[in-house]
Amino acid sequence: MLTRRTLFLLMGGTALAAGGVAASRVGVQPEPPAPPSADAGGHLLWRNWSGIQHSYPASRAAPADEGELADLVRKSPGPIRAVGAGHSFMPLVPTSGTLVTLDRIAGLDGHDAEALTAHVRAGTRLADLGPALSAVGQEMPNLPDINKQSLAGALSTATHGTGVNLMALHGNVQAFRLVTADGQVLDCSPSQNADLFAAARVGLGAFGILTRVTLKNSPAQRVERRVWLQPVEQTLAEWPTLQAAHRNVEFYYLPFTGMTAVITHDETDAPATPRPPTQDNDAVMSLKALRDWLGWSPAIRRRVAKHVLSGLEPERVVAESWQLLSNERPIRFNEMEFHLPREAQVQALKDVIEAIETRRHDVFFPIEARVIAPDDAWLSPFHDRPSGSIAVHAYYKDDYQFLFDVVEPILRRHGGRPHWGKLNTLKTADFIALYPRFRDAMDMRRQVDPEGRFLNDYMRGVFTDA
C-alpha cells in the first residue's frame, strides 16, 4: 500500500508547508524487556508470541500419541496446560507445573469423501491443514486471519473467520476425543457424552486435552479475493449490504485516515491468478511511519494519508480458499477483541474510533470488523446470537493499557463478549451474566476435573464462582 519513500517525501513536504514546524518523530523503540531465560530452579522460560505472557514450567512434554498423553496426564505435576502456537494474549498457558505440546499428534487421521468429513489430530497447525484437506478435495468452511494456530488451540478459544452465514471453527466440529484429568480418553459428540461435547467444544483446555477432531467440511473451492479502500462513512453505511452480498467480508479501519480497507472472498470458477507479494505488513509499518512522523498533528496526518490512499488501485486475486483466508502475520501485536450483538457493532465501532482519535494519538494499527453466525456451544461467544466482532490492536512495542482504559468499557457497554484468547478483564461473575449456560459448563468442568488439575491461576479466576 504506502511505500516508505512516498511517505517520507510527503511528510517532509508537509512539515515545511506547516510553516517550518518540524515533525516530532517517535524515537527508535527498544524491545520490551524480556524475563530471565530460566528461574532460580533452572526451569526454562516459556513466552507467548507477543511476549506479554510467560512462565517457567517444571515439566515439559511432547507426547507422540494419545496413549502417551493419557499416561503423562495421570502422572505429571499440575497445573497441566496444553500449548499450541502461543498466539493467545490472555494467560491461558502459563503454568508452574506441566506444559504439553501436541505438535507430534498432528496430521490427517482419515476422511470420508462422500460425507465431506475429516478426522484431524488436534496438534495440526492450520497452515498445514489447508493443503492436507485440499489434497482430499475438502476445505474448512471458514478460517481465521492468522494461519499459525493449532487446531486444538483455535477450537478451544472460539477462533473464527468472517461471514454472515459462517460459524466459528468449532461450529463445524462433529465429534472429538478428549483426555481427561484421570487419564481417560472420552469420545464426545451430540450422541456420546453430549453435555461434555457442548461444554468442551470451546473448552479453554479446562476440561481435558483434545487429541482428535472430526470436522464437517466443504468441497475444495477457489475464491476471488477483492480488496479496496473507501471512506469509513461509506463502509459503515454499506455494511449490511456487504454482509449479504459476499461469502466472506470484513474491513479494517485505518486510524487517523478516515479510510477503510474492505476485503471480500467469493466462490468462483475463474482460473487461479498469480499471487503478488503480500502488502499487508508494509502497509502496517507505513501507518506506523505516519504515526511516528505526524502524530503531533492528527489533522495533517489525516490529510496526508487520504492523499496517498486515494490513489491506490483495488486488488483482485483468485486462489484456493485456504490460501487466501489465512495469512502470515509476522508483525507482533497485542489485541483486544469483543463479539457484540450484530445490531450493536456499527455504533460500538463509531464510539471506539471517536475515543481513540480523541484520546490516543499514538494508535496506528488497523481496527478489524467481522461478522460470525451463531452456534450452540456453551462457552462460545457466539452462543445463540449473530455477532459482529471488533478487534483493536497495539504494536508489541507500544503501551497497550489503552485497550483496558479506553476500548474495553465501550465494548462491554454494547453487550460484548470477549474473545477467549484476547485481552480482557472479565471474571466468573461477568461470564455468568453473559453466557446462559456458563454455570452448566462450570458444573461439567468440576465433574471431569474435580481437583482442578487443568486450572492455572487465571483459569481458576474464570471458573471459580467469586
Automatic annotation (TrEMBL):
Pfam families: ALO, FAD_binding_4. Keywords: FAD, Flavoprotein, Oxidoreductase, Signal. Residues 53-220 form the FAD-binding PCMH-type domain. Residues 1-17 form the signal peptide. GO terms for cellular component: membrane. InterPro entries: ALO_C (IPR007173), FAD-bd_PCMH (IPR016166), FAD-bd_PCMH-like_sf (IPR036318), FAD-bd_PCMH_sub1 (IPR016167), FAD-bd_PCMH_sub2 (IPR016169), FAD_lactone_oxidase-like (IPR010031), Oxid_FAD_bind_N (IPR006094), Vanillyl_alc_oxidase_C-sub2 (IPR016171). GO terms for molecular function: D-arabinono-1,4-lactone oxidase activity; FAD binding. NCBIfam families: bact_FAD_ox (TIGR01679). This is Oxidoreductase.
